[in-house]
Amino acid sequence: MSEEIEIDIDDLERRMDGAMAALRTEFASLRTGRASASMIEPVMVDAYGQPTPINQVGTVNVPEPRMVTINVWDKSLVNKVEKAIRDSGLGINPQMNGTIIMLPIPELNEERRRELTKVAAQYAEAARVAVRNVRRDGMDQLKKAKTAGMSEDEQKLWSDEIQNLTDKHISLVDKQLEGKQAEIMQV
C-alpha cells in the first residue's frame, strides 16, 4: 500500500465508538422501573449562575431498588435541585427531607414500557445513522484517494475494511438495543 495515500481507519473507528458511547449514555437515561444513579445524569441544576450536573451539587445514592437519594451539600440549592428534577420530564416526584431529596421510582405499566422500547429504538436508529455517516466519510476519503492515484486493489481492501468496521458497530447497536428492550419489558 502506498504511504502517501492512506485512510485513517483508527479515526473512523474512534468516531464509531463515540456513537456507541452516546448510545450507552442515552440508554442509561431511560427509566426501566429500577433505580439507577445514571437516570438523573442529564438533569442540570442552575447552581451559582450556571447549569451544573446534579452529581456536582450533591451525593447521589441508590439505597434500595426503587429509590434514588440525593444529599445536597449546599442547603441553598435544595429547592433548585428539586425543581430541576420536577421540570426534567423524568416523571418522578421528588420528596424532601432536609437536605436529602428522595426520588421514589414508580412501577412502570405495560403501555409506558412499550413507549420506552420505541424511544430506545429511536436512540438506536440515531446511533446507526451516526455510524453510517462515519462510513460515508471514509468512503469519501477513498474517492479522493482514488483520484490521487490509489490502485483499485488498494481501494477494494480499504472499502472492505471500512464496511467490516461499519457492520461490526451496527451489530453492536442491535445487541445493545435488544438488551435494553428486554430490560425495559422485564416486570
TrEMBL record:
User: SUPFAM superfamilies, per this entry?
Assistant: Ribosome recycling factor, RRF
* Annotated InterPro entries: Ribosome_recyc_fac (IPR002661), Ribosome_recyc_fac_dom (IPR023584), RRF_sf (IPR036191)
Task: Provide a Gene Ontology MF annotation, just one.
Answer: ribosomal large subunit binding
What are the record keywords, sorted? Answer: Cytoplasm, Protein biosynthesis
Q: Which domain of life is it from?
A: Bacteria
Q: Which residues form the Ribosome recycling factor domain?
A: 23-185
Tell me the compartments it is located in: Cytoplasm
Asked if Phosphoprotein is a keyword of the record, the answer is no
Q: Name one GO biological process term.
A: cytoplasmic translational termination
Any Pfam family matching the protein:
RRF
GO CC annotations, alphabetized: cytosol
Spans through the membrane: none
Q: What does this protein do?
A: Responsible for the release of ribosomes from messenger RNA at the termination of protein biosynthesis. May increase the efficiency of translation by recycling ribosomes from one round of translation to another.
Task: Tell me which family the UniProt entry assigns to this protein.
Answer: Belongs to the RRF family.
Name used for this protein in its record: Ribosome-recycling factor
Q: What is the species of this protein?
A: Roseicitreum antarcticum
